[in-house]
């Protein structure tokens, strides 16, 4: 099932990653030339953005500060999406195609609730917050790969929504070829604690995996259950 086509972003070009200059900028090599590239994913990505890693880029408009946008990187288990700016579009398509177990009639994006903006409001009664997991460890997809105060805040808002009579989901999109999902307890115990407390409070979990094909199409590759231990 196709969820997105990276070719919609522009011409896809392959190159090699050189180094990360700062949170949003890296250097990449295409042929014999070095270019700047925008990194939309602000996670650590230490296992992914290594020197010499094969990457896919899209050329930026001339007026922008960097030459290219970083889209994905090739890992041992396949291409991994490293551009969070398109997560919401992929998640929206997955929801439309029934990933939550039902087919919505109406979906609103970036809906204000409390002190946050939640990714989706479905049929006016169901909030959904989407998170992308690009960290693979021992066959498990983990989130986050860096401590996230914002992520904890979003989960707490979902708990509040349930208390006010809404339904709510934490929707995790697995970007790696993993067997299950687990919060990254060692790296961010606060997020992990909030995650499990939310489930006990009535927030539901749903997870799915995506795969980037060689032609740039992103497909649904299966459900992603919670790890049991």
UniProtKB/TrEMBL annotation:
Entry GO MF terms: DNA binding
Gene name in the database record: sfsA
Start and end residues of each Sugar fermentation stimulation protein C-terminal domain: 87-214
Classification via NCBIfam families: sfsA (TIGR00230)
Taxonomic lineage of the native organism: Bacteria, Pseudomonadati, Aquificota, Aquificia, Aquificales
Family membership: Belongs to the SfsA family.
Organism whose genome encodes this protein: Persephonella marina (strain DSM 14350 / EX-H1)
Protein name according to UniProt: Sugar fermentation stimulation protein homolog
Gene3D superfamilies: 2.40.50.580, 3.40.1350.60
Xref: HAMAP family: SfsA
UniProt domain SfsA N-terminal OB: residue ranges: 18-82
């Amino acid at each position: 099932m196709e969820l997105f086509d990276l070719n919609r972003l522009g011409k896809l070009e392959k190159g090699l990653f050189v180094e990360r200059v700062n949170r949003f900028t890296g250097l990449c090599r295409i042929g014999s030339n070095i270019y700047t590239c925008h990194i939309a994913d602000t996670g650590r990505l230490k296992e992914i953005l290594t020197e010499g890693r094969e990457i896919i880029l899209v050329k930026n408009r001339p007026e922008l500060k960097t030459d290219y946008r970083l889209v994905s990187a090739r890992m041992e288990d396949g291409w991994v999406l490293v551009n969070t700016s398109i997560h919401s579009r992929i998640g929206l398509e997955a929801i439309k195609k029934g990933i939550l177990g039902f087919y919505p009639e109406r979906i609103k994006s970036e809906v204000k609730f409390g002190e946050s903006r939640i990714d989706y409001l479905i049929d006016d009664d169901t909030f959904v917050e989407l998170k992308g997991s690009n960290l693979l460890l021992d066959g498990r997809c983990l989130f986050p790969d860096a401590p996230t105060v914002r992520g904890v805040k979003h989960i707490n808002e979902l708990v509040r929504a349930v208390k006010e009579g809404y339904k709510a989901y934490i929707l995790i999109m697995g970007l790696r070829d993993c067997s299950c999902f687990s919060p990254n307890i060692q790296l961010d115990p606060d997020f992990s604690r909030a995650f499990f407390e939310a489930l006990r409070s009535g927030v539901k979990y749903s997870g799915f995996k995506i795969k980037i094909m060689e032609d740039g199409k992103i497909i649904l590759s299966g459900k992603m259950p919670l790890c049991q231990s």
